Amino acid sequence: MHSLDQTKPISRRDAVETHAAGTDAASHRAPESISRDPRAAKTILFVQYTDPALYPPLERAAWMLAAAGWRVRFIGIAAENSALTLAARPGISCRLLRHRSDPVSRLLSYARFAAACIGKARRLRPDVVYCSDFRSFPIGLALAWTTRVKTVLHEHDSPIVGGGLAASALLKARSAFARRATLCVIPQDERAARFRSATGAARVVVANNCPSLAELVEPAPKRDEALALWYHGSISPDQFPETLIDAMRLLPPDVRLDFAGYETVGNRGYVDRFLGLAEAAGLAARVRYLGAFPERAKLLERASEAHIGLALFARAFREPIAGASNKPFDYLACGLPLLTNDTAEWDAFFGKAGVSVGCDPSRPEDIARAVTWYRNNPDERRAMTERGRQKIRDVWNYETQFAQVIEALNA
């Protein structure tokens, strides 16, 4: 299939109505805006009131659909202070609009975004509109009501909403869209059950946030006499606790901690605080921040140089997370067995598969105990590495997880 367009890195500074080179040449042709050749490639429009580059499952879905001959279009909001971009792929394009943060401009930005999405859908006449965040659901609902387009609701995280008319309206739109959408996609079994109960949705499938088979990384050669812990993703106390510093103080000097990623909006300055604590503890040489990796492939390649992947979440995490978080699957694809919470949820998902060791992330001595076990048992660690990679090959890959969604879209 010849490429119609290709996503390129987009400057956040100039992302008012930025298009990748050639992105909308096809979608603005008059013949397509009037009628569609039934033999033409199918088109899907991803609508997200955030930056799609921050959601690896969307990128994987786009890859799979483009490889199957679909034309893939994204419309979203440019993220501030993010180095991430969608990787360039034939058949995939992205348009990002700028978001304003003050209350009045925020409302106008959303209205402008909704109008842009509906206008693009009417011009493009896609076969599918794919809405994958809370504020895109009203747009999907409007298109489901007024057109014959297939619609997908993909909820990565259950919404946190306060009171007020806007929150109430968004929740009502979520429920209405869930009942009307062609398909609802939820990343975790228990979340799916809760979603059905809350919305009355009948057509719900579960797709765990697994990597693509193409992202299975050949592990880099490792030195057994040293042990490298690795974390990547959003950097906050809820997912990268300060207790790791105290745990590192209890561990031998041949254990180091490397981490990469970006700070969340509510946790600006946390990286500096974490590194400051490490320096104060005499660990500056053993705790390293590697920044944010714009390209996911480079991130996974770097992760493969470590030994253990950290997936330690706040014990009072607000909803079931095992299967929904992409980090543990990323680590396994890179050849890293896991250090996870020692809860029933994590043990049932990863522990029973023989790819993780649990600990209490609030207790430095328990983190150190689990890391010491990995350090002292290199043969078992290597066996866990291979078990994890085999699970990725067999079932924990997005080709398998997303297959039922593609089947529904092609029906």
UniProtKB/TrEMBL annotation:
Record keywords, A-Z: Glycosyltransferase, Transferase
Spans traversing the lipid bilayer: none
Molecular-function GO terms, alphabetical: glycosyltransferase activity
A matching Pfam family: Glyco_trans_4_4
Domain Spore protein YkvP/CgeB glycosyl transferase-like: 244-406
Residue numbers spanned by region Disordered: 1-36
Location of the Glycosyltransferase subfamily 4-like N-terminal domain: 64-208
Keyword Transferase recorded: yes
InterPro entries tied to this protein: Glyco_trans_4-like_N, YkvP/CgeB_Glyco_trans-like
Compositionally skewed regions (Basic and acidic residues) per UniProt: 26-36
SUPFAM superfamilies: UDP-Glycosyltransferase/glycogen phosphorylase
Name recorded for this polypeptide: Glycosyltransferase
